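Hi all, long-time lurker, first post. I run a small reading group and we've been trying to get comfortable going from sequence to structure in the token notation. Rather than ask abstract questions, I figured I'd post a concrete chain and ask someone more experienced to write out its structure so we can walk through it together at our next meeting. Sequence below, copied exactly:
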Amino acid sequence: MAQTVRPAGSRPSPSRVANARPATGSLFATDGKPHPLQEALMVVTGVLGILAFVTAMFHNLHLISSWAGLVGILTGVYGQYISRTTWERFGLVMGIGASAVGFYLGMAHGGLFGSIVT
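-- Answer (accepted) --
Happy to help. Here is the structure in token form:
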């Protein structure tokens, strides 16, 4: 038998279990504290991701899409490094994804310097 039997007094009392922090598992799970830097990075990454994604659909806007995508990826990665809650991580991943798509399409259409450097 690989299992062991606990002695009668080794289980936690029900009062300690009832006072434990509830496991929410929600997307909006938070620790109840403000995180202004993390939320600002999430918003900046999202805005840059949307900008990069939308401008990547136009061939002549490759400078905007590639630079916005690159900056969005970098801010998103730093935001992931210092993020504290699931909500922040979710928003950052969505922004990084949009920034990456915009960056890659911008690079395919002409790159970071395109027609500026020949």
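A couple of things your group might point at:
The chain has a mean pLDDT of 84.
Residues 86-109 form the longest helix (24 residues).
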